[in-house]
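Chapter summary example.
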Amino acid sequence: MNRVFIKTYGCQMNERDSEAVAFKLQERGYAIVDHEDKADIVLLNTCSVRDQAEQKAIGKAGHLAKRKRKDPRFIFGIMGCMAQNRGEGLIDRLPDLDLIVGTQKFHRVPDYLDGLTNSNPASTPIPGTITEIEEEEGSQNEISEHFESDANRVTAFVSIMQGCNMNCAFCIVPKTRGKERYRPMHEIVMEVRSLAGRGVREVTLLGQIVNAYGRGMIDHKDGKSAFVQLLEQLHEIEGIERIRFTSPHPTSFGDDLIESFARLPKLCSYAHLPMQSGSDRILRAMRRPYTMNRFMEIVRKLRQVCPSIRLSTDVIVGFPGETEEDFNATKEAFKESDFAMGYIFKYSERSGTPAAQLEDKVPQEIKEKRNQELLALLDTQSIASNRKLLGLPMEILVEGRARKGDGKLMGRTRCYRKVIFEGSTNLIGSLVDVQIKDVSSSILKAIEA
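The structure predicted for these 449 residues follows.
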């Protein structure tokens, strides 16, 4: 039996894709192992959002190539966004590479490995590097199975769509993921119902622009978008206690979705709202089709319908042409929105994107300075937000043992704060009331209430 290790870089969608590949491989008779040293085959599921992510994966692949030169039977491959972005160009850098699989071919991986290993008598041996990056109709429907690697699993990612129809100047995702493709609503409901039957209590819906689900293809009903219709159906599933979603886009945050935070108790009091910049001038250059007035209107409405909501965001500093005035506008919007969590990035040029052609590049040292300044502001806001919870009771869903908790357990609040506390492993999978005793900018420490 061939042993496979899958290393995943990047976002939750990549994690979900890797899980689906693992399921299909196990179904075909491959063994999924937890470390590359135990594996006969290593697959890297890669990210292309920033150049640093690609370089990290290429460095890892170079290390694997050295192993292959020592052991020609060893197989390694690159999957996902970098495979889609670079294609056969990867062979020039990594001539020992066995497999290059794009984002619409994940479900074909068992077939490709059968051809490389001759493990299936019905398969035809495939010489050289296999490169499969073509589009495939219906591929979004293949990310539906879940790998049963943890008997105590209580949370799960559910992919509801693939691709992106936006044209943000900085983003390579439309190239790596293709046009938006939506899964049928009834199939998503069936998947979540099956997860609930296996003990999953919380699901996170995934999509490149998850709240755009069904646009142009599924009609509004009673003034509700397809995404809100889906939330309502999932809300009725017995056993599911919490629903989250990521990553949304401000342009698809309609009033019907905002109001859902008030009327759907299972929809958690947490929303990710990617701002990218607080300057209208930079937003236009980024091809982000909203103004800061519209963005702040969404923030105000969310806090109005759900006062306990916790907001997170994405921000890019150092976009071409960003002045000190533009950056100051971002800081002010960051403060006004009172983000308690965020992902702050220095602009990374991606070849093939419109922004790569822009002049007036921001020097690296200025990007670094602005990045550190905004990270410091985030830390201040995060710890101030968490300190308000000291002494308060909070309900958490216990997910498992804490990674660095000396035997403690880890759970999350409805507003997606991580909580560490002492308790019996029998509590895993349960909703538990705790009292907050200590906080940092990223973690709450508690005792059972």
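To summarize the output: The mean pLDDT is 94.
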